[in-house]
Amino acid sequence: MNYTYEIKNELYKSLGNLFYAVAICDGSVYLKEWDKVEEMVRKYWRKMDNSKDSNGTDLVDQIEIIFDWLLEYEKTSDECFEEFREFYEKNPQVFTKKVKSLIKKTSKAIANSLLKKNESEKKILKRIDLLLK
């Protein structure tokens, strides 16, 4: 990704919001969902972008930092999804096919981290698919 530090930082913050929206959509965030976020960041997102901030921290860590912050401040799924949508609509150039594909893959992995998807999870995954077309 060849975007400015600020855009990348905001992208990963918005992804933290989106992935939290998927996890909280049924009213609770389960440990398996948090573990799946960490796994996906480690396995896929870090490989896609190894940019670092001025302290040498991977920018993609913003995904986990924001997700963790949201656990404490208990925003709703809709609020978090809307924050992601706003960033997406203001910065469509950042969302390449590869990024969109990885967003969908990560979102589905979070939703599937429990035994099966419930209706709330199916609904938000559909909203993500429609937005990222």
Question: How would you portray this structure in words?
Answer:
The protein is built from 6 helices and no strands. With 133 residues, it is mainly α. The chain has one domain (5-131). The longest helix is centred in the N-terminal third of the chain and has 20 residues, at 5-24. It starts with a helix and ends with a helix.
What's the arrangement of secondary structure elements?
Elements (H helix, E strand, L loop, with lengths): L4 H20 L6 H18 L12 H13 L3 H14 L6 H15 L7 H13 L2
Helix pairs in contact: 1-3, 1-4, 1-5, 2-3, 2-5, 5-6
Protein name: Tellurite resistance protein TerB
| Intertermini distance | 20 Å
Q: Tally the structural domains.
A: 1
Number of H/I helices: 6
The SS-based structural class is mainly alpha
The share of residues in extended strands comes to under 5%
Shape: globular
Low-confidence region ranges: none
- Percent of residues in helical segments? 55-70%
Main sheet makeup: none
Radius of gyration: 14 Å
Strand tally is 0
Average per-residue pLDDT, rounded, comes to: 93
Q: From N to C, what is the helix and strand string? A: HHHHHH
